[in-house]
Amino acid sequence: MTTQRRDDNPPTSVKDEQLRAHAVEKHGSYLTTDQGIPVEDTDNSLKVGQRGATLLEDFHLREKLTRFDHERIPERVVHARGSGAHGYFQAYDDSLAEYTTAEFLRDPLAETPVFVRFSTVQGPRGSADTVRDVRGFATKFYTSQGNFDLVGNNIPVFFIQDGIKFPDFVHAVKMEPHNEIPTGASAHDTFWDFVSLQPETMHMIMWLMSDRAIPRSFATMQGFGVHSFRLINAEGRSTFAKFHWTPKRGVQSLVWDEAQQIAGRDPDFNRRDLWELIEAGRFPEYELGLQLFTESDAERFDFDVLDPTKIVPEERVPVRPVGRLVLNRNPDNFFAETEQVAFCVQNVVPGIGFTDDPLMQARLFSYLDTQLTRLGGPNFASIPINRPIAPVVNHQQDGFHYDEVPRREANYHPNSISDGYPKIPGENGYVHYPELEDGRKLRRRPESFADHYGQATLFWNSMSAWEKKHIVEAYRFELGHVERRYIRERVVDHLNHVDHDLAVAVAAGVGVAEPAKAVDNHGRSSPALSQTNKGGRGIKGLRIAFLVTDGVDAASVTALRDALRRDDAVPELLAPADGTVRTTDGASLPVDRAISTVASVLYDAVVVPDGTDAAAALRSNAQALHFLAEAYKHAKPLAALGAGTSLFETAHLPPFANGLGGGGAAAGVVAREESGAPDDAFVTAFVTALEAHRFYDRPLETVVA
Ligand code: HDE
Fold first, then answer.
1. Which parts of the chain are coiled coil (predicted)?
2. Reported confidence tier of residue 664, pLDDT bands at 50, 70, 90
3. Which of 116, 154, 161, 367 to probe ligand 1 with, by most ligand atoms within 8 A of CB?
């Protein structure tokens, strides 16, 4: 798995040009100190005699060590582990002009540069990618009117309703304070204790227990702004807006057993995938959609649009396609860009506004506040990755790391010394929506936020059979790691208010008594919530393992491999040993990797090509058999040709239909016992299976992998 950079491309946007102005090229230059003094020797410190004391006078030694000692900045308190990418956003048309003055949303000719950072929430910087967790999906739009930061997640609701609960929630989910365990996991007592005492978490927890919390790729997960925002048009009219990112490839997830294994096999799995997709030109793409609704629509909903634990069901307000996001450039430097990027919810441009969602309001404070510590002072907005492409002119000044040399006389407003500059831009200035506020100061949750179960039930009712099964298994896993039985009981009690069958199924797995039915399920569902209805197109970037060895039939490999490559998938030949394998026609094929260096969990599908001798050898190769059986167990598409089909029986896999397969006992297995190269129908059947991604309804009872 290569992580080499492609050749440098020319800058493709104003933001790229701005960043390039800060690029440092070390090739062809000579070593100096930070003061530009040429260095004589950087391998030996200055000593009295060869074996004598080291001298304090050695400024190069001291500077080198000091700089090293201070390389780290505090990691983010949440979302510490992240991966970034550059790209652009482009609106489809100008139809949003009726709703907003934000130019990037209504000018179809503008390619707005963006920087996106994906993240997990719980784990520290060095933790594994494939843990069960929410994923951050934060986008900085460098618009002509200033920066807009859409700091969202891949789940459309949040754990809590009021920002004042955030420190409690984060303390509970993070590693426990006495032993810093567990890393990157919510399966522990303090998290579930909090959840069980704070039932507003119930809806979000349903999502967290679903496969949405273990995405296959950052390119195959949704993103959401979560809160209700406002769009504000030229007349000052406000419309509520919910932001949605939808991946062009569709929503795809891992299965839990696989995710856990990947955490060991390749902790950088999602990061590497993103990097490689972009390096190979298989750019991740997403559609931006908006749910737009008015104040009076909102009054008719049976939930409060200011409550961030609620969605607006798509069946009530459809998602309107607005534009597309393409991620097409990897960062040049992780620290300079991905680590130093500072998202702030307060960063909005004219035409986009806030609401009184109490979670959003707290975020308006918290993000700027955290950057002050994380990035060492108030000048973080002038770090290249954070710098707007719109001009920045004001009287803010000084502080740590100030990098301007202002040449002006007046540093205050109003002034006459500098002819009044910089002047107020008049009607282009950002105007806060003049919402009418009226009420007493008090610390109360509104009554309209009181229903904590209704939408959790809606989510559960909308799941397909396999999604429900995975959710039950996830609850059992998580609660199975909770040591205090009374916490497990409290969670089951809450689930009993979501759905009785769910509570019974979870209780049975975690040693909790079956609860008596408490409430009737309201029976409503929202099909748009099910992952089965979030399919996408194409097989771009899918990794497909071909199990080969000496005696493999060349035609059955190359025909399928070439077809997959044409569709932008990534086929790789895996053999018991690296090097080459001999084919039946006496030629040889280069091997991509030895089977022992990888694992089925790092691939999306497996192919066993034809070849009598190869099949015989693989049938007595435990690693190959395990590879195949495990991919089957993880519901992945499999293809087998000619003698290759014989591995299925040896691997104790259920029988498949001889033909193109796809349905029946072994759904997603495309197999043909007849020898020779695959025909078009075979290729099409396999590509269709790959597009479906997973086949969760397979019989698994006999699979021992
Ligand atoms: Fe965050 N959140 N958050 N959050 N959040 C941070 O800001 C915070 C919330 C989200 O890739 C921190 O720069 C509070 C909701 C993302 O750099 C911090 C509250 C949503 C990222 C912070 C919330 C998010 C953060 C940590 C409740 C989804 C990573 C470092 C009032 C809509 C951004 C930092 C990146 C990061 C505070 C709730 C998403 C501490 C106080 C809801 C994607 O400021």
1. none
2. low
3. 367
Q: What is the pLDDT of residues 70-89, one digit of tens each?
A: 999 999 999 999 999 999 99
C-alpha angle 385/390/395, rounded to 5°? Answer: 95
Our answer on whether the CB atom of 367 is closer than 6 Å to any ligand 1 atom is yes
Which DSSP string do the residues of 159-193 spell out, in sequence order? S-SSGGGHHHHHHHHSS-TTT---TT---SHHHHH
Residue 110 tokens, joined: 């503008």
Residue of the CA atom closest to atom 18 of ligand 1:
367
Q: Is the CB of 343 under 6 A from ligand 1?
A: yes
Looking at residue 665, its pLDDT comes to 62
Of 700, 684, 682, the C-alpha closest to 692 is: 684
Spatial CA neighbour of 602 closest among 361, 311, 261:
261
Catalytic positions are 79, 153
CA angle 142, 160, 162 (to 5 degrees): 80
What is the distance between the alpha carbons of residues 631 and 624, in angstroms, rounded to a whole number? 11
Mutational pocket test of ligand 1: of 73, 75, 77, 79, the residue with most ligand atoms within 8 Å of the beta carbon: 79
Half-sphere exposure of 329 (CA within 13 A, CB side): 20
**DSSP bridge partners of 582:** 588
User: What is the dihedral angle through the alpha carbons of 202, 207, 208, 213, rounded to the nearest 10 degrees?
Assistant: -170
d(C-alpha 366, C-alpha 344), whole Å: 8
Confirm or reject: Cβ of 554 under 6 Å from ligand 1: no
Question: Which amino acid residue places its CA nearest to atom 3 of ligand 1?
Answer: 363
The whole-number average pLDDT for the span 307-320 is: 98
CA 3-8-9 angle, to 5 degrees, is 120
Is the minimum distance from the CB of 678 to ligand 1 under 6 angstroms? no
Cis peptide before 182 (omega within 30 of 0): yes
> Is residue 138 in contact with ligand 1, taking CB distance under 6 Å?
yes
